[in-house]
From TrEMBL:
Protein name: Oligopeptide ABC transporter ATP binding protein
BP-aspect Gene Ontology terms: peptide transport
Major location category of this protein: membrane
Residue span(s) of domain ABC transporter: 8-259
GO cellular component: plasma membrane
Lineage: Bacteria, Bacillati, Bacillota, Bacilli, Bacillales
GO molecular function list: ATP binding; ATP hydrolysis activity
CDD domains according to UniProt: ABC_NikE_OppD_transporters
A Pfam family it matches: ABC_tran
Keywords: ATP-binding, Cell membrane, Membrane, Nucleotide-binding, Transport
SUPFAM superfamilies referenced in this protein's UniProt entry, alphabetically: P-loop containing nucleoside triphosphate hydrolases
Membrane protein topology class: Peripheral membrane protein
Family listed: Belongs to the ABC transporter superfamily.
Length: 342
């Protein structure tokens, strides 16, 4: 891999699903990159296309009804979005691992957890089952499973939710992938266990120089673990940048809305949380203009008529919003006219 080459590049990715009601444009021109050793968070509300993007990277889009209709997924300089299934299997699990949202559906309930980890070692490293079992015990210990020599012979139902998620992480890391995609890895867990899993992912990422794509709707998770973030809305990227830049100076009204809807512990007085009113657009017939225009407090006529260009604000911080056009009125003027403040 050349020095200036990203580990993973998503370029204008488009994914559609054919249904009885029509064709859903679930992912509409998504572009971002992941470098070696960094964690990138994909953020957005349910239905924005986060998980579909992850499935497209892994080659897990069910066809039919789903299909990648445009764009590229490039991993280590090679285009992988249209590889034959056999070649894709050589990458999936070995070069790119995945941690799924619900460990009970990710794990086979009829197989011991050790058997499920051993299979990965045998397939990818071509070692004996005895050696694979030894490495599996080491992997369970690495992810914080107590007494791994005993627990390797237990079934998924004998583990708590947090421990099952640790097993899923062990399986994802068993083949020593260069990239791990974690799809809402803490959603099904209570708050205490969430913190433990995030600490585990962060530690493993740092110790093994892993690249991680974490998919979440929780900005607290983003602040805890990510280096950069990609904000998605209605199948599109509306803002991207380092976590520090986006949190300190969000540039898109949707990102402002996400920030306003979070409780703040640093405020002296209690502040009322401000929801984002309205609903996402119909992706059977997406709007021709900005997808957030119907819910935006600062929407102008041009917003509904034409898709905004993406503006650059330095250090890779980008946002697609007409408010940054030199011809647009200043935010202060819109607030003075009665619009919702940032």
């Amino acid at each position: 891999m050349r020095m200036n080459q990203h580990l993973l590049t998503i370029d204008d990715l488009r994914v559609n699903f054919k249904t009885y009601g029509g064709e859903v444009q679930a992912v509409r021109g998504v572009s971002f990159y992941v470098d070696k050793g960094e964690t990138v968070a994909i953020v957005g509300e349910s239905g924005c296309g986060k998980s579909v993007t992850a499935q497209a990277i892994m080659g897990l889009i069910p066809h039919p009804p789903g299909k990648i209709v445009g764009g590229r997924v490039v991993f280590e300089g090679a285009e992988i979005s249209h590889l034959p299934k056999k070649e894709l299997l050589g990458i999936r699990g070995t070069q790119i691992g995945m941690v799924f949202q619900d460990p009970m559906t990710a794990l086979n309930p009829t197989m011991k957890v050790g058997t499920q980890i051993v299979e990965g070692f045998v397939r990818s490293h071509q070692v004996s089952r005895e050696e694979a079992r030894k490495r599996s015990i080491e992997m369970l210990s690495l992810v914080g499973i107590p007494d791994p020599e005993k627990r390797i012979d237990q079934y998924p139902h004998q583990f708590s939710g947090g421990m099952r998620q640790r097993v899923v992480i062990a399986i994802a890391l068993a083949c020593q992938p260069k990239l791990v995609i974690a799809d809402e890895p803490t959603t099904a867990l209570d708050v205490t266990i969430q913190a433990q899993i995030l600490d585990l992912l962060k530690r493993l990422q740092e110790e093994q120089a892993l690249s991680v794509v974490i998919i979440t709707h929780d900005l607290g998770v983003v602040a805890e673990i990510a280096h950069r973030m990609v904000v998605m809305y209605a199948g599109m990227v509306v803002e991207t940048g380092t976590v520090e830049d986006v949190f300190a100076n969000p540039r898109h009204p949707y990102t402002w809305g996400l920030m306003r809807s979070l409780p703040r512990l640093d405020e002296g007085e209690k502040q009322r949380l401000i929801p984002i009113e309205g609903s996402p657009p119909d992706l059977f017939h997406p709007p021709v203009g900005c997808p957030f225009a119907a819910r935006c407090d600062f929407a102008m006529e041009i917003c509904e008529q034409q898709m905004p260009v993406t503006d650059e604000f330095g250090r890779g911080h980008q946002a697609a919003c007409w408010l940054h056009d030199p011809r647009a009125p200043r935010i202060e003027e819109l607030v003075a006219a009665g619009r919702q403040g940032v």
